[in-house]
Amino acid sequence: MLDGHAERPPGRDVTTLLRRTARQDKQAFAALYDATSGRAYALACHLVGDPERAANVTQEAYLTVWRTAPRFDPSRRSGLAWILAIVHGVARSTA
């Protein structure tokens, strides 16, 4: 608990941000990027082995997230898992 407010589980926040992103909410997308891009970039680095290529993969993945957010289904996987799957797919397609 911080400042008298209960902390929200991170996964729930990502889901909420993805739902808002699906409605073309740019502020939600920026918050989603801030909350998840570190993990996405780390995965991209692991997959492609080069920081510059990883940055490009991450950028392309977030463009895909923006375009495909309406397809996100929280009953199938967490928001973070969905984003990381996109990163993985982009990394494989650029190999």
Describe this structure in words.
The structure is a single chain. By secondary structure, this protein is mainly α. The chain is 73% helix and 0% strand. It has 4 helices and no strands. It has helices at residues 10-22, 26-48, 51-68, 79-93. Helix 1 crosses helix 2 (26-48), helix 2 (26-48) crosses helix 4 (79-93) and helix 3 (51-68) packs across helix 4. The longest helix has 23 residues, at 26-48.
Please outline what is shown here.
This protein has 95 residues and is mainly alpha-helical. It has 4 helices and no strands.
Order of helices and strands: HHHH
Total DSSP E strands: 0
Q: What's the shape?
A: globular
Mean pLDDT: 90
Q: How helix-rich are the residues, as a percent range? A: over 70%
What is the SS-derived class? Answer: mainly alpha
* Strand coverage percent: under 5%
The biggest sheet, with number of strands, parallel, antiparallel or mixed sense and barrel status, is: none
Distance N terminus to C terminus?
A: 44 Å
Radius of gyration: 14 Å
